[in-house]
Design goal:
Elements lengths: L2 E6 L6 H14 L2 E8 L15 H25 L9 E7 L2 H11 L4 E5 L14 H8 L4 E4 L10 E6 L4 H18 L2 E8 L8 H15 L4 E7 L3 H11 L4 E6 L4 H6 L3 H6 L6 E5 L6
Parallel strand pairs: 1-2, 1-4, 2-3, 4-5, 6-7, 6-9, 7-8, 9-10
Antiparallel strand pairs: 5-10
Helix pairs in contact: 5-6
Organism: Mucilaginibacter ximonensis
Family: Belongs to the universal stress protein A family.
Protein name: Universal stress protein
């Protein structure tokens, strides 16, 4: 990962994700893009069209650039002189947050999008104000969700959680994780979430994956852990809270809209509860 884009609304609540992204860029030797989407009426469902005066847009644009510049200076000023200093590029756009972030990520060929989640954001709002939930569905490249209050620490253990019932779909994401783990000299744990009444037949799939990954990538720090849980999200939350991992990863699969409306996806449930950053690979990135 050589190009990281972090989305921010320039509030104090969002700054933790920007700081995390900057330190991650330091550890990876990557370039950092800080992206701000101007808050316009297009974000708000309405029956009529509201035309804003041009001077309002000009003021918003100027304020955005000023705050981005301050944030950039704050990050570089806090860096230790003997560490890698990432190049920081500030970008902005007008429109719906997901559209702006995806457009800028594509324009700058970002390998990763970083977004902060807030303590009061339970991923339950379907209309406005819930950019985390929307980005989980819409992200066109891997998405890293950073919980409120997260403090960056060197990534030494990464866990990928799944029931591995769609292992073929997940193989590409796991391969990218192995590359990341190798770059960081980190351990990768394949966490197999099993229901209590399931036998170990699925473990053969994991062993085949493990063998192929080690053979193709030459990274020996890959292991398997079985977690018994009736629900994948609960099993992953247990894993995040009770084992010493620095990053949790999974593949997000799209669900029927009605199911999401009533229950929410496993990824969205997990994003609202995990105490460690959650790296989401959207399944549609790998579907043919």
């Amino acid at each position: 990962m050589k190009r990281i884009l972090v989305a921010t609304d320039l509030t104090a609540n969002a700054e933790h994700a920007v700081v995390y992204a900057y330190k991650l860029a330091q550890s990876l030797g990557a370039k950092l893009y800080i992206c701000h989407s101007l808050n316009v009426p297009a974000e708000i469902p309405q029956s009529g069209t509201v035309a804003w005066p041009q001077e309002v847009y000009d003021d918003m644009d100027r304020d955005s650039k000023t705050e981005l510049s301050k944030l950039k200076h704050k990050l570089t000023a806090a860096g230790a002189p003997d560490t890698f200093t990432p190049e920081i590029i500030c970008v902005q756009g007008t429109g719906v947050v997901t559209d702006v972030v995806n457009a800028e990520a594509a324009r700058h060929k970002a390998d990763l999008i970083v977004l902060g989640t807030h303590g009061n954001d339970r991923l339950g709002t379907l209309l406005i104000g819930n950019h985390s939930r929307k980005m989980i569905e819409a992200a066109t490249c891997p998405l890293l969700l950073v919980p409120d209050g997260s403090v960056f620490r060197p990534i030494k253990k990464i866990a990928f959680g799944s029931d591995f019932k769609h292992a073929e779909l997940e193989l590409n994401a796991i391969s990218r994780l192995v590359t990341l783990a190798k770059t960081l000299n980190a351990e990768l744990v394949l966490a197999h979430i099993q229901k209590s009444n399931e036998d170990a037949a699925g473990n053969s799939i994991i062993k085949e994956l493990l063998t192929e990954l080690v053979r193709n990538h030459g990274h020996q720090q890959v292991s398997v852990k079985v977690v018994k849980s009736e629900h994948i999200a609960r099993g992953l939350v247990w894993l995040a809270r009770n084992t010493h991992i620095d990053l949790l990863a999974m593949v997000h699969k799209r669900h029927n809209f009605l199911v999401e409306l009533l229950h929410g996806s496993r990824t969205q449930q997990l994003a609202a509860q995990t105490p460690v950053p959650l790296l989401v690979f959207n399944a549609h990135q790998y579907e043919s």
